[in-house]
Structure formats: C-alpha cells, structure tokens
Batch of 2 targets.
Target 1
Amino acid sequence: MTSDTTLLLQASGISKAYPGVIALDRVSMRLSAGEVLAIIGENGAGKSTLMKSLAGLVTPDGGEIRVDGEPVKLTNVQHAMSKGIALIHQELNLADNLDIAQNIYLGREPKRFGLIDRKAMNRGAKEVLDEIGLGLPPTTSVSELSTGRQQMVEIAKAISTSARVIIMDEPTASLSDQETQRLYDVVDRLADKGVGIIFISHRLAEVKRLAHRVTVLRDGKNAGELSREQIGHDAMVRLMVGREASTLYQYESRPIGETVLEVKGLVTQAFPEHRLSFDIKAGEIVGVAGLVGAGRTEMLTTLFGIDPPLAGEVRVFGKRVMIKTPRQAIRAGLALVPEDRKAQGVVLDMAIRENTSMASLKERAIGGVLINTAEERRVGKEMNDKLATKTPTLEQLVQNLSGGNQQKVVLAKWLATGPKVLLMDEPTRGVDIGAKAEIYRIMEELAHQNVAVLFVSSDLEEVLGVSDRALVMHEGQITGELSRDSLSAEAVMALATNTQISQVGPASSPS
Amino acid sequence: MAMQGFTRTLGIAALLLIVFIVTTIADPNFIGSDNLYNILRWSAFYGVLALGVAFVIITGGIDLSIGSVVALSGITLMILLQVDYKDSGTDLTIAGVDKETKTLQLVEDMPAYSNLDRLAVPNPGGADDILLTIDAAQTEQLNDSRSVVVRENVSRISPGDVGGLQAQSRLMNPWLAVLLTLLLGTAIGVFHGLLIGYGGMQPFIITLCGLLAYRSLARIISNDEVITIGSHHGSLRYLSGGQPFEIPVPFIGRIGNASDEAARGFLGWVPMPMPMLTLLILALISGVLLHKMVHGRYMLAMGRNLEAARFSGINTRRVTLTAYVICSTLAALGGILFALDLGAVTPATDGNFYELYAIAAAVLGGCSLRGGVGSIRGVILGTIVIITLYSMINFLGKSSEWRDLIIGVVLLLGIAADELGRKVYSSIKTRQRRKKLSG
C-alpha cells in the first residue's frame, strides 16, 4: 500500500444509481503522483461513471473523494479543475472554429486591459505544446488537425491548467498507430514529471504497455487490482468477465445453407471510391472487424437504406431488391440493430410495447391504418418473452431498462418483422456480461432459423468468439475475409491496419 | 407518460373550474346562457387553429404562419364570394310606394328573379342610382305578382319611377369557394412540409417567412381594403353562426340571473354553436388519428426520437409533411370561420398573433415544444381556458390591454407547475433508488 501522504487522489465507497441501473456500487480507487493507473472493465462496468465522478461531471449518491488527503465534494468541472483534476473525453470537446491557443485557454483567456492578450496566449500555448512534443503553431485551426492531434491539444489544455491528475477515456480509440505511439510517449513523460494519469482502455496490449497498476471494475463494483508484475492478458480478462473468457463464447458450428444475402459492388456515400462485395449464407454469423472509421457502420446503413447507395446490387434469396429507404429494406427482409442504441435504436420515453411494434405496426394494422391494439400487445409479449427482456410490464418506458434489456427491445422490434437478414452494429456495446451472453445466444438461434446475421464489432474477442466468418475493413474497403479456421487476432489486426499493402501513414482528418 | 398527461388534463380542468367560480361570484352573469354560448363559440374559432398547430408541435416542429394563413384564406374566401350585378335588360315601372312595409307596386307583372337581386332607380339628386335589394321571402308572402318588398328605405322613390332589374351574379357556388379556400390552406401546408420534411429546412424560419409573405399577399390581392360580403350568403354563414341544437346545463338559469322566468328552472339551455360542433367532430377525428392510427403513432414516435423513427422504417419526411398539411388546412378553416363570422375581412390586421394564441393553447394543453407529447383533449381544454380568461377579464371590467398579460402569466405558471411536478417526481424516484442502494 502506498502511504497516504503521497496519494494524489483517493475515492472510497463511491455509489451512483441511474434509472433502472446501478452504475457504481461502493467503488474505491487511488492514485499516487507519477503513477499511471488503468481502469478496465467490460462495457457498462461503470468505468465512465467513475471517471465522471472524479472530474465533477457526475455527483455520486454516496462515498468520499479525497484530493491530497483532503475530502472534497466536486460539484462541477471547474471545481475539479481547480483541484487539479482534468478529464479528457472520449469524444473530444474542442471548438472546431477556434485555433489551438484559443482552445487551450477557452474560458480563462489571459487578459490585458480587459482585452484578450493574444500574445501571452500564444506564448503559453507554445510552451505546453513543446512540452508534449507537438510542434505546431498555436494559431493552427483545430479543424485542420487529425483526431490524434486534437487529442494532444486536449492534453496540452489539461497541462496548461496545471492539472496534476489527467483522466483519459479511451484515448487511443480513434488514433492511428503512429499517433498512439506519440500518445504513449507523452503519457510516460507526464508520469515522469509527477502527474498522475488515469486511463480507461479496452486494449489490453495498451494497458500492458502503459499501466503501473490496473483497477478492474465489473458490474459497477471493484473486481480486483493488478500490480505491474501481475498485469497480463489472462489475469485481466478473468477479473473483467468474472470467469474464464472462454465461457462467454461457446462457438458451435452450424449447418450452412443457401445464400441469403448477396452484395455486389455496393458503393457507399462515405467511400465512393470503393466497391463492397460479399455474401452471407443461411445459418451463418459473419463478423465485420476493423478500426473506428473503417466504413463498417456506413456499409450497414447503406445496405439498410439510411444512406442510399450510389451503386451496387443487393439480392436476398437470389431476388434483386432495390433499397433506397429503410422501409424498402424492411420489406426486403432486412433489419438493422443500429450502433447508437439510445439515439437510433429505441424511443426512450415510449413503452416497450410501442417500441417493439414500431417497425411492424403498419403491416399488422387493421386495413393498414388503424392500430391493432390486441395484436400489438400479443406481439410485444411474444417477442419480449422470447428474448427474456427483464421488465415487470410491457408498459414500462424503455428509458427505465438497463442497456442489455434496451438492446433486447431493439431486437424484439426486428424479430417482429420476421427478418431474413439481421444487420447488427456493435450489438453488445454498453451491455452487461449476462445480457451479452444472451444476445450471442439469440444471434445463434436466429442463425439456426436460417437468418443471415452480419454484425459489426470493435470488440475483437467478440468477433473471434462468435463469427463463422469475418470480414475485415480498412478505410472503406473490405481488405480480407477470414474463415473460422484462419480467424485470429493477429490476422484481423493485419487486415484492419492494411499492413501488407502499405505502411500506416498519417491519419486522415476526422470527418 | 400517460399518467402525466392525465394529471395535466386534470390540472387544466381545475384551473378552468377556479376561473369559473371566482368570476361567477363577482358577476353571476358569467355563467349565463349568453356568455357560455360566447365562450364556446370563440373557443371553437381558436380551437381549430390550436388543433392544427398541435400536430406540428407533436412532430417536433412549429408553425408561425397561422395568423397570416387566417388572413389570406379569409380574404380569398371574401373575394371568391363577392357578388356582382348585371343589368337584366328589364325595366319595371313603379305604380305605388308603401314606405312602412317597404313595398313597391308595379305596373307590370314581376318577372322571374332571385333573392337579393336588385332594382336600380335613377337618383334625381345624385349621379349614382338608388339600389333596392329585393327581399324574396317577404315578397313571396304578399302573393301578389305586381308587388315587391325591398330591404332599403324607399322614401326617395315615387310612383312613375322606372327601375332596372339587376340580376345577382356570383363568381362561383359559395360551397365551392369554401372548398377552394381550404385547398389553398392545404397547398400552403404541402409547401411548408416539402421544405421542412424533404428539404430539411428549419420550421421556425420557413413559417416565419410564411408569416410575413402570406400577410402581404392578403393585402396585395385585396388592395389592402376591407372586403365584405354584406348580407349575402346566409346559408354559408351558418358555419360560424349556426345553432344546430341546445345543450342542457344545470343551475345556470338560477345563478346566472336569466331574464325570463322559464329559464330559471333547474336546467338552463345553452345553444350549441355550429363551429364548436365542427371542432368537436374534428377533435374526435384527430383523437383517432393521433392515438388509434398508425400515422399518429409515427407522429408521436418521431417527435420524441426522429432518428430512431427513421431507423425503424418510418417515412419521417412524409409524416412531417402531413403534420404541416393538417395545420395549414385547419388554419384556412379558421380563416373561413372568422371571415364568415364578421362577413368582412381586414387584410392588414385580421389574424394577427393568432399563431401565438394557438401555440399557447396547445402548450397549456400539454403539448411539449420538444415534440412527441400532447393530447387532443388537452388542446381543446387549453383553448377553452384561454377564451374563458378573456371573458373573465371582460366581466371583471378590466380593459383589453390586461388580456395578454394575464394569459402570459397563466401560461408561465402552468408550465412552471408542470416542470416543478416533474422535478419533484424524479427526485422522489432518486430517493427511492438511493434507499434501495443503501438497503
């Protein structure tokens, strides 16, 4: 145990509840000066809520936070910053229309005679940029920077507030290899200077490379802690899932039938220079791997008619279908479980019943116009029983359900349409372990019923554990296809970064 | 949500009751048959507008052009209903004049004519002819082929004068005019819906442009002059002034100081205003549309989460279009009712701010400007509350400049109470959760 005197930050017994879910249940953590602490855990384990509590974004329902041994009640971000704690969000919070220096000093601009002192601002910005090795003029507009460099600006901003604790939420999620390396260097350098760093990551290799210590959360509780010597892939996975990783994925091969979905030369609006071609057979579960921004989501939304395709041919059971709108996609037998569940999957303040009937309401309506209430109830009950959605009643608002149960409602909505092809975008993001296993079971069951399942996932283990076959995408292109036998993390990563074809260049600026 | 909507309706009903009790204590005539009739009638005029804008608000939009659509459709109707006269070529020589009964005896038999045809008699003292409008009903009662009853004063007419018979000529059938005016509203709605739903433009801006443009159009096509239909089109005016039947209301005769003894019984009778009957029918249809039909569910869903609705295969553009079509068509209907009520439209001022009254009524009735929330009965009640407050202000002897202040304050209090209720509700929920957590 580190002695209390060197503890920069200490949290004990932190609890936080949201409607329908307990995000944090008496969680504790500590951080010393110069230490790099990784917080890991499955999606929905409470990592982000804990970070937000430490940064003053979320007020915990219970527990105590100490800074330098002094108990504090962090009421807002400014307050946390004044205590030396800075949070760098997963989604960056920079103002696109301003330059680097303006962003670094946003809200606390140096003043001279009541006016903004641009010179002092640029000077100060230059200093912190040099400190982290980002040799850019402070007057560069942020909109011209790649995601990686924007991240660096966020870090520079944190340092310039003389933050002693920097919290980073999945800092490398959208960075290129080069940028990731540079970030690692900066983290090392900051730690050497005595800054405490907390970072959340799903990349275990990254945790191994950076962390001095690992705190593991599971289902909103402390699941364990690993010291530098103990940090290893298996140990981390065991603590995260609470059992051996293999039990979550129980792959069994299924009989493969005729071709259900055939895609030839599909051109998306996002990557008009590439053509996508693949097919899925009945009973097959095909995973789509790739880095963030590889065009996987765009492929699904294009297939589903959200963003109509520029060209290409789609066949379902050999029959050519024209899909320019989601309605046409549904008629053709397609269903899409979208990436952003709360924004695109469910209507949070509507009942489970209403959400479940959403996509098939017209087909089941009396005369195509009048809602068939009895039928709506029956289907709502049937589908949610089938998926074991945990709720006292179908009239429950979807916002009161946990992430996993919300996802089941999305699935119930699509099952009610009797799909032939199920497209899923990050189907288990923000879903707890139990629900995760259930969603895999549902996918397998649908495959057994000859539904073609195509799912996009950034969780490599999930792709490896569930797919019969995997497509790997890189910058809008399908760079490879891996059968179950040739499916491995190394093979996927090689295709995802396209290392055979060309060395990784500087990342393109974010869209 | 359903629960919240219901408490909301209860709240408005309670507010209405309080207003009624307070004002009746101050002046019992407030619940006299006449005033109740007026409240119902005026509520109907504004209720038609509020009902329309409710659909737009529920789908997450806004329509600021309603007042101008009222003016434009009103003036259009007045123009289409204009009555013109043509010389029929028949001259009638007057044999005698009865000033009391406004009856003219003729030398010849009266040729075929229709009601409101007129006689143009040369005026010795001026350039313009004296125009005498024939009252067909009165004339028929005389049952004399050589007599004709007119509406105007006949004191300047003397036997021997010769009047030219002028036949009334209408641009079109008055019901066709009403239909065309409604279609004008529909066309405006389609225009808004295409720009907003399909073009992705902001409803506030689009309808603000409409607010300015349609008002101007109304003034241009009328040369910025008041257009009236005088005493014509009696049957059409039944739409705004008709009383199809009476509804019994207990006690009002006794409290309300009814003038005649018969009205002092247990039941008082209030005539049902035709526009209110129309509104109730429209409300019924709207209720079915919003709560029982697929299309209504789509409206509620996309008002709450446009993206999720789109991802569920709902044609959100088309749903948006229909909301604006309903809104502008009902605004045109409102314009027709207001125009027929007065029989005249002043293009520069009629309908001014009506969009804001409609929005206020819808919001008071529980529609959220964030979209996805609202009930038809709430909107109707909300309108009645606003009209009742107006009436109250009159009865309490306050002048009309007080009116909007009081409406504004009531609306503010209503919304604040709603927000407060929600906060209290959610803090109780949080406390329960915390208890569960620590327990």
Target 2
Amino acid sequence: MSDIRATEIMVAAGAHELKDSETVVVGIGLPQIACFLAKATHAPALTPLLEIGVANMRPKDTPVGLADSRIFYRATCWSGFLDVMGMNLHRGIVDTGFLGALEVDRFGNINTTLSREGGRLRYFNGSAGGNDVASLAKRVIVIMRHEKRKLPVAVSHLTSPGFVGGKTRAELGLRGGGPHRIITDKAVMGFDAKNHSAALISLHPGVDLEDVLANTGFPLQVPDVIASTRLPTAEELRLLRDEIDPKSVYLGGAH
Amino acid sequence: MAGKIKPVSEIVATIPNGAHIALGGFAIARNVITIVHELIRQQKRELVVSQGVAGLDTDLLVGAGLVSRLIIGGGSLDRFGPVHCINRARETGSLLFEDWTSLSLCFRYLAGALGLSFIPIKSLIASEILERLERGPGAGDVKPMQCPFTGEGYIALSALTPDVSFVHVQTADADGNCRIDGPRWENEEQAKAAKRLIVVAENIVPTEEIQRAPERTIIPGHRVEAVIHQPFGAHPTAVFGCYDYDAAHLKLYVEHSKSGDRIGDYIDTYIRRPKDHLEYLEKAGGPQHLARLKADPVLGY
C-alpha cells in the first residue's frame, strides 16, 4: 500500500499505543484522531476525556477544536475543568495524556507557548490544559511532525514538564509518570529508563535512520535492533479516510 | 418578567475603569460578545481580564486597547487561528501578562468560590510557567508549600476573586437562575468566585420552567446581580443547542486581527458604528444569515 500517507502511519502508531479500557485525556488535533481510531478498532472500552468537561464523546463532522459542538456530540457526560482536570487528572486516575506540541526536547519537555525562529519571538496558544496533563497523567504521549526545529536539545519555553534536566519525576516532585512516547511522521521514540533521554524505538517503513537523525535536533539514542513501525491495516485506513477525517483536515499535508 | 433583566448599556456603565473582569467564554464557544462590544463602545480602560482559555472575546478587548493586565491559562480560536491581538500584545510587551494553565486558574477560582485564601496544586511544578509567574506580576500568587499532614510538596495558589464575572448561558429566568447546556469549563467556579455576577442569556423562560428541572440550574438566581437578554449574543462564537459558530465571520475576524491597523477597522465597522448588538447582528449578515447558523435540535450545532 504505497499510497499510505506518513500522517496515517503516525496516527495509527498513536492509536496502537492506547489500550482498551484506558482513561485518556486528549488534546486538540492529531491526538483526537488517534484516540478515535483506537476506540473504533482495538479499544472500544477506552474512555476519552476532553479538558472542557466531556467524557466519552462520539465526534461528528470533523470538529475544528475543543470548543466545537461537533466534538462533544453523543458524549456520556458533560461537566467542566474541575471534573475532568481536577477529579480525574489531579485525582491521579488518568492513564494516558495525549498531546500535540510546537517543540519537544530529549527529556520530553513540551513547548506550546512560543517560538524564537530567526531571532523573532512569537507567542502561540500557551498551556491551556497541556501543563496539567503532562504533570498529572500516568504517562504522556506526544504526537507531532518530525522536523529538526521541533525536536531541539532544549525547548525554547518549558510549558509542560517531562524529565526536566534528566531527573526522575519523583525528584521533580511530580505525581504523573511523565513522557512515554514521541510519535512522529518518521518514527516512534521512547525514553531511556536510566538517563531519561529520548531513544528510538521504531522507524516507519520507508524511512531510514540517517533521515531521522538528520531531522532530529537532539542526540537520539539508537538501539542495536531497530523495529519497523506497524502499518495501519486496511480497515484502519478506511476508518481514517471515510469516517474520522474524510475532508483530510487533520491528515492532509505531510507526505 | 422584568425582575433582574437589564439593558447591557446600563450594566456596563457600572463597570469602573481598572476593574478585574472574568469572562466565561472558551476559544470560539459562548463568548460574552454582547458585553465585550459594549465595553468597547463605552471605552473602558485599564481592565484586568481573567479567563481559563481566552477566545475572540478577550482578543477583541486587547485589540481595542482596553486591557492592562491579562490572567489566562491559554488562548485559541481553534483551527481558525491563534489569538493574534493577545499574542501581538505579548510580543510588544504592551500589557502585563500572567500565563497560567486551565486547571490552576480553575483551582484559583474554586478557592475564591469556597472562601479559601489559597489552594494547593500538583501541576505547574518544574515548569517555566511557574518560573515566569514567580518573577512576574503573578509573583504574589504562587508559593511552594508542604502538606502539614504528609509533607508532600505542592504549589500554593492564591484565590482569584474577580470584581465582576460575565457568563453567557443558554437559558435563564428573570431572577437569574441559569442553565448551561453542554460542557461548561470553569464557568461555575469563575461565576461563584466573583464579587458581582452578570449573565447574558439567549432565552428567558418563566420560573415555572426552571422549577420543572431545578437540577439543571448551574447558577442559582440569588448569586446573580443582573440578566441581559440577548439572542445571538455570543455571535460569531457558538452556543451549544442554539447556534453554530459563524465560520465566515471568524475567518474575517482572524484576517483583521493579524495587524493592529486592520483590527481597528473591524472594531469601527462591527462595534463602534452599530449602536447596539442588534445593529451589529444586522451588519454581520442579518436575520437570514443568522437563521442558517441555528442549531439542529438533535445535533446541537
């Protein structure tokens, strides 16, 4: 299936990380798409939560964001920040926080606040619930495009903590387990259990190691044996293309 | 039926310059546009604005130059774009800026609503958000602390008690009993933390209707100072169950918001020249255009 897009492999890899019966707080964009793919396939009992106060929604007509009524269609609970972020996340029962990012560094620290490209300071959306999710979820998965500037040695602004300075989460005083995966359109990365630095797990089919190393701004640990990322099945592709994102709002672009 | 129902111009006239106002919108949903437009028409100054996730409402206030200090957890117009006016103001340093998170601001409002002077939290820790707060205008509102029972480390947050909170709701009665349909982010904590609470309602129903399902009342009337009745009062943002966001108008807004000059044109055309919200709605497309945004009763948008 040579016509599979890199974004489709990325989103399917994100979905494959999610387990059935998990409680997942999903951020806007690709995390939503991956989560709904998981729920439509191997994880029907997964409970997705949105920070604004939504549980177990069945989105319709490709929502434009968290505030779009299309995203909380057929939810089983509507509440607010205090419920989802307070009595779920802060309570410590959220298995996975699933986020996007402007930048992620080798310790899994996330920047969603600003960029300093070409010496010009530009501000973006800030944390919203991102810092809370990264601080409090049992594990954090980040999904983003694989570009050198988006994977720097150190983020330009540490919006949401990973293993800050290579420290353990306990040393940092954080309850949540911290970064678990960085999933891009080229590879899947995890974190070394000892030094907490990003380490390659698998390359997407057709992507070579040199390409990944050349497009990663931090020193990436490479294992002796590199796996190949599992491709989306025909059924997963059908769901993505026909049901989850038929207008290619989220999957378009990165070939 | 009159009860607490007041015209928006009369209410906004009571807001002093320099007041701390809290807004109940989130990105492109349930923004208090009726209030924001009137604040701009009445040329208020030096406002302190707090909000979990800022949207078009706060972006407009900043674009119009009414704000001296922002206390927000984030800001976005979803896929229509970033909050250009707010981001530009940060880049040029034209206002004091406190960058928080959704949960930390919700907790600060909750502390205010409960009459607590502070509340501990387990996020913000080890982040640059905390570092910047500690050396910025929020310095007096965050302090490391230990649990007196277990010794566990927390960040203590001071309570946030806005002078006035404004929230846009689907349904209220003339006494101010309010229903909020769909998710409600930090609306309840924010509303109940404030010293004064003003609601804008799409629909006014008889109190008998409220009494038929009082469990749906999110904000009870005795907490509410005044009710402003304004159908399409959140346009161009969405009100679940009432109308969808106006995608064409949001695109037009985002184009104007990209520069300081063009946002001025938007404000003149859509806010200063119309004398009230009805004239604004006329300018923004009128009844036929608005009818197309009305929500399908099953879908809610």
